[in-house]
């Protein structure tokens, strides 16, 4: 393990210690010492060639990522509602998981639902549960995410795709702290932190009536903007090393990118962001046959941009 990897691992362990001190109510007393240790654990600005800078389980050392990490650190102790905004593939769920895994609810469940991937008539059951016989196929009672995650966190991805009738029901749950399963006339009290994410402009959708304004303000106490990969100068090479190691472990393929290939990767605009980059790296590793990866192993659009 390189010195850079050890530094990153130490920082992760130190952040976990900070979270534990916060939970125990002694963070205020220990914070000066812990912060000094964190600052001395190694500079992010000048990582060595083998280091993979990480915080909160995310890779990156660019200024936009540092600003995002600082905001996450500031809001970790609270249970405030957070709206995570960013382009597709930029890592919004990783931010939600960081808020849960390093926050006061980390020992409780984290459940995620993609509001765009579930049919509108099933989304209510997925989130709030249902009673047996309430609809065709309901062969048993089902608690739903808000009950199953009691004490923990529910992450609502692509909240901008939630149908308006469901938005009204979600608003009531957030206001009253209780859910009513489909087919039941009884409510169930829940203590759940809700995090939401979107790649859409919810404020503009409020203006056109596509999204409830009262729900928007309920969700958007604090906004975390996840930067697109094209604005994260210098982070592509860190991500290449990170995913390269993972690809070698999972696929049993050598994933070493030569300087020319790395130049192509850093020059691309990445409209699909980190997800697109990971897919490109896997494709290149599969096509390279175990040799050092060059521009000829990349997608034509990337290699043509040299």
Structural write-up:
The protein is an alpha/beta fold. It folds into two domains: 78-225, P-loop containing nucleotide triphosphate hydrolases (Rossmann fold); 229-304, Helicase, Ruva Protein, domain 3 (Orthogonal Bundle), CATH 1.10.8.60. It is built from 13 helices and nine strands. It has helices at residues 3-23, 27-40, 63-75, 92-101, 120-128, 145-148, 164-176, 202-207, 213-219, 235-251, 259-267, 273-288, 300-304, and strands at residues 54-55, 58-59, 82-85, 110-114, 153-157, 178-179, 188-189, 193-198, 222-225. The strands form three sheets. The chain has a five-stranded parallel β-sheet. Helix 1 (3-23) packs antiparallel against helix 2 and helix 10 packs across helix 12. It is globular. Mean pLDDT is 86; it is low at 1-6 and 42-47.
Describe the secondary structure blueprint for this structure:
Elements: H1 3-23, H2 27-40, E1 54-55, E2 58-59, H3 63-75, E3 82-85, H4 92-101, E4 110-114, H5 120-128, H6 145-148, E5 153-157, H7 164-176, E6 178-179, E7 188-189, E8 193-198, H8 202-207, H9 213-219, E9 222-225, H10 235-251, H11 259-267, H12 273-288, H13 300-304
Parallel strand pairs: 3-8, 3-9, 4-5, 5-8
Antiparallel strand pairs: 1-2, 6-7
Helix pairs in contact: 1-2, 10-12
Sketch the major β-sheet.
Answer: 5 strands, parallel
Strand content: 5-15%
pLDDT below 50 for ≥5 consecutive residues: which ranges? 1-6, 42-47
Work out the radius of gyration.
22 Å
Q: Which whole number gives the mean pLDDT?
A: 86
CATH class of the largest domain: Alpha Beta
Secondary-structure arrangement, i.e. CATH architecture of the largest domain: 3-Layer(aba) Sandwich
* Topology, number of strands: 9
Looking at CATH, which topology of the largest domain would you report?
Rossmann fold
- The name of the CATH superfamily of the largest domain reads P-loop containing nucleotide triphosphate hydrolases
Please give the domain count.
Answer: 2
SSE arrangement, N to C: HHEEHEHEHHEHEEEHHEHHHH
Helix content: 40-55%
How many H/I helical runs? 13
Spatial strand order of the main sheet: 4-5-8-3-9
Shape: globular
Terminal CA distance reads: 33 Å
SS-derived structural category = alpha/beta
